[in-house]
């Protein structure tokens, strides 16, 4: 590359990445919401670009000797722009990558690439970053190739590197038609002294789910070390991303906080925080923290988690909260029509407050009886009888609680007592469990599992 003045190159680079007053920031051309900055998250800014895109300084170039090196050191230089290179408009992402390399290696100017792609209606974000600390930039391109017909555009990510005076795509991801890009930033996540790339984006189809991508350049190869979020987080301006060395081992954990995803038969959204640690070349889940409950079923879920972990004391606290909580709303079961639809269909609607509070009192009576807490058991039974008398929504749990407590007090085991309860549900209340399904990613109940000591 011919040497030019630093001012000229900086101006050209400003065109590429959208700088204004000297601080160079990556510009996203995509129609996505602006990222919400956080106090600790790395801002979506590009790596500081050298005044000239040059090869490795001569002092670092290996000198030929009588005994050649068994592996030649690659020469990371870029082809010189110039000539009459033409970028052919691609039909899809695969063709885009091929056409792009052909264009750049024929003398196309990468500093004018963003403007050229825009003229072809190819939405793009071009993020320059030195991923291997060799003073030569890699380029991360997130693009949406417009469709020929009425299908969504073809999405993809490509990483360009200059090698032996030629551009090559050293890594790419085809995202398909249902993906969105938000912004890209860089950080040294694994403490190796090199900048790594974090692409914020995710799935955008029947639902919208956050799926960040983390790329590391190691031993000349790009590694995708992204965490598997399993559709945990939705697309929200409440999402927060933090890269922080939580355990002080020199490697940064990836911390995500935000509302859970809203999807078909998903439970009501709740703020959660997930921490991922880099192990064996991938970010694996290390910890999950639940935010404050926003509806009653969140508290029922907390109670079931405590019960499953063997912490009966905590489970009892949560069930007491549900039974007496006057602030949190209740949500309808997916298996019962909501009131307006139930009225149109001529069927009985759900009564979520009654059935969720009655369930909590039923569980309290069961646990306190097994623990030998007579006064607490009596309190739960009295609450059930006063608040859910025969013939009212939730009264099924009153009848079942009396039968369960009687069996336990007669000396029957918790398991056999639950079997008695299940038989009664089958005879008298076969549709009871329909009130207790709020989504697949939260506690929900079948007739066989309404009793807390039933075999699972």
Describe the structure.
The chain is α+β, with helices and mostly antiparallel strands. Helix content is 28%, strand content 21%. The strands form 3 sheets. Strands 5, 6, 7, 8 and 9 form a 5-stranded antiparallel β-sheet that branches. It has a 4-stranded antiparallel β-sheet with strand order 1-2-3-4, covered by helices on one side. Strands 10-11-12-13 form a 4-stranded antiparallel β-sheet, with no helix packed on it. Helix 5 runs antiparallel to helix 7 (352-371) and helix 9 packs antiparallel against helix 10 (414-428). The longest helix is centred in the last third of the chain and has 20 residues, at 352-371.
Give the terminus-to-terminus CA distance: 69 Å
Number of strands: 13
**Sheet/helix structural class:** alpha+beta
Global shape: elongated
Strand fraction equals: 15-25%
Number of helices: 10
Helix content: 25-40%
Stretches with pLDDT under 50, minimum 5 residues: 1-71
Average residue pLDDT: 84
The H-and-E topology, N to C, reads as HHHEEEEEEEEEEEEEHHHHHHH
Largest sheet: 5 strands, antiparallel
Radius of gyration, CA atoms, in whole angstroms? 30 Å
Please describe the topology of this protein.
Layout: H1 6-17, H2 93-105, H3 113-119, E1 123-129, E2 138-145, E3 154-162, E4 167-176, E5 179-187, E6 196-204, E7 208-210, E8 213-218, E9 221-224, E10 240-244, E11 253-259, E12 271-279, E13 282-290, H4 296-308, H5 312-324, H6 339-345, H7 352-371, H8 374-387, H9 395-409, H10 414-428
Antiparallel strand pairs: 1-2, 2-3, 3-4, 5-6, 6-7, 6-8, 8-9, 10-11, 11-12, 12-13
